[in-house]
Amino acid sequence: MGKAYHPQCFTCVVCHHCLDGVPFTVDATSQVHCIEDFHRKFAPRCSVCGNAIMPEPGQEETVRIVALDRSFHIGCYKCEECGLLLSSEGEGRGCYPLDGHILCKSCSARRIQELSSKITTDC
């Protein structure tokens, strides 16, 4: 980083643990963070549980699902109506959004059917 530090002075700005010989990163304001605190502070938040979407301990990467401009943990990406775990890979388990809601195929079809039955042709 172009600066000299005593090893004991090179610490994370959040937890203050020594980062000598430990992986670290720097934020946009050049503040030094341990990897875990950086993820906690800057990681996207899951729109269901509100927790940061960050790698599991011992992992370097994680998967984030984005739908309707919202972020989800894999385990939180469920149909809002029936709770079916959704996936882009599973047959019949895709997301069928309707009016801003994350729905499975059958719940979306049921809602569309309900909405269609409410439409009247009365003048």
Automatic annotation (TrEMBL):
Q: Name one GO biological process term.
A: cell-cell adhesion
Please give the PROSITE patterns that the UniProt record associates with this protein.
LIM_DOMAIN_2
Cite the Gene3D superfamilies for this sequence: Cysteine Rich Protein
CDD domains named among the record's database cross-references: LIM3_Zyxin_like
The UniProt entry, under InterPro entries, shows: Znf_LIM
Q: Which UniProt keywords apply?
A: LIM domain, Metal-binding, Repeat, Zinc
Give coiled-coil spans as residue ranges.
Answer: none
Q: Name one Pfam family in it.
A: LIM
User: What residue stretches are annotated with the LIM zinc-binding domain?
Assistant: 44-114
Q: Which domain of life is it from?
A: Eukaryota
Q: Which residues form the signal peptide?
A: none
Instruction: State the protein's name.
Output: LIM zinc-binding domain-containing protein
What is the protein's species of origin? Terrapene triunguis (Three-toed box turtle)
